[in-house]
Amino acid sequence: MNDRAPTDEALMIALQRGDHAAYEVLYQRWSARIFHFLIRRTGSRSAAEDALQETWMRVYRFRDRFQTSRRFSSWLYAIAANAGHDAREPEPESFEWEPSGEDHPELRDYLVRALHQLDPKDRRVLLLFMEGFASPEIGQMVNMKPSAVRMRIRRAREKIKATLGALDDG
Amino acid sequence: MTDDDLRDPEMDALFGRLKAPAPPLHPPAIVVPLYRRRWIQGAALAAALLLSVVGARQLQEPLVTARGAGAADGAAAPTVELRLVVERDGEAKRLAQRELCAVGEVVYFRVAASEAAALSVEGPSGIEAIAAVDASDGVADVSGPDGLVGYRFDEPGPHTFILISGPSVHRWTVDVTTN
Question: pTM of the prediction?
């Protein structure tokens, strides 16, 4: 008896064949991670919820376009990177945050704002990089050359460091 | 410059502490579309999704609200508000007044009403009832026994959706074209 859980790609094949239960399994498997990505990308809970809904709507709607030669996670994040809209103003209170005793009292707000002040494309590629994707894969997701992806990551990190440096100076 | 040059575990750990709350328990519902009737019930995966994608945030926007008799003398006036949503290219789009739609598109409805309401449409062929709406608890997606109610445009021309709740009436017009 094979009791291993089906792979994401196998679940997508099942969904393409009409097994709607596979859709639910994929959601349960991925929604928390994607929501974590989306709330940092969009800056607010409500915007992230909208983007999450749109992401899964597109997963279903475009299920037949998924190619099993591709990793499901890469396909899913590519959808999530472009779904919905970023919040106009970030809402730090949207995030769950466990302060540590060594934290600056405004650290959470600074982190959220540091992300939000990035160019939206820079923010997307940086967050995808933080999720563990390599620059060539990110390039495929956002239609960019890997070198451009790396340039954006470096620029984003430098800008964040400058922002957080101001926190230390303050 | 390689990916390794760009790694910064300290920064990543810091931003990793920005946690998201739990996401909704279930994905958007899947319902197979059945576009056999001019107005349709229980239709479409998209239907369930559309109204949810529009999201709570938009519901907090100032409402375009019709007020009935009673407002002038300071009494609490019944309020009604109607929103139309259509799916285009996989995205939910809220329709503005006089927005252009295409024949074949399906609209769904979100209603706020302080009393029971009735939704109808006046199109080129006349007036047609769509659904009765109980939105007494605030905001409701218009649905019937089989699920959400959608209305498919099958002829060009102006279509005015009319929501009547007590003495209040709210109208929303879209212009339907053939392309």
Answer: 0.60
